[in-house]
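Entry 14. Ran structure prediction on the chain below.
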Amino acid sequence: MTEAHQSARDQTTSTQTSQAPDLSVRIAGLVLKNPVIAASGTFGYGREYEGLIDVSRLGGICTKGLTLYPREGNRGRRLHETPSGLMNSIGLENPGIPAFIEKELPAMLGLGPAVIANLSGSTVEEYQEGARLLGATGIDMIELNISCPNVKAGGMAFGLCPADASSVVRAVRKVSSKPLMVKLSPNAPDLAGVAQACVDAGADALSLVNTFKALAFDIRRRRPVFDHVTAGLSGPAIKPIALRMVWDVCAAVQVPVVGMGGIAIAEDALEFFMAGAAAIQVGTATFPRPSAMIEIIEGLERFMKTEGIGQLSELSLQGKY
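Output, structure tokens:
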């Protein structure tokens, strides 16, 4: 290589690394300043973390799971640590959508990140009325939760079957023009089929995966740890499986996919972008390390700058293998 060629190459590399990478992403018409979103049920309504991190730096915040009517949540033990994971059985404890709109949403809208309302319900009618109420507010997007494994009636059942998933997505689409992202259950026998059914019914984007249905026993008491017997497993233990599911769904649909499941550091997030995800959500990692999402944002920026990557979409390996 001549000195002139080496000089030109060094200049190009210097230009690539000196320019700030573009971390912004577009999901169903909604532009996020970066792809890091606080996952539902792990970040409250955002204000809970204001004294710990600069919440305004996040790309988005998903609310706790919201239902039309207030829910007290599950009784008994709600959290149980496992090797490289966390089991939870919260049961969608929330004040109900009208109370959320009145008491929590105004402050949430002032935080800076996009506001994504996570909506659940026990019947199609409840989903529909909840979506109608949320659609009349300033939220940026609805995340339709058809995958929660902790509620005996509703959520999980809708996410297991393509026809049932389609029915609730279609009903919500009729009453709200807000961008609609559907959160899928990893427990579905035909996840790609459910994903495509949701898209055909009007979903603008998909998010996955929610927690895996799991079981733990208290050997001293000789009974299940949780009153509802099974609970949802999250954390690093599920990442390789979640990553494979995101890869499969990204290959099956033509809408943006938001990946989640065991993301704790920037390297984890990068794998999901390589799988085809347009953005990511972080949940369990925030509990032991409230700064996890900020560190991921900074890590992504460093990686892109070092590697000369202009946009995250360049990382996708979909269609190459």
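Residues 68 and 98 are 7 Å apart (CA to CA). Will compare against last week's run tomorrow.
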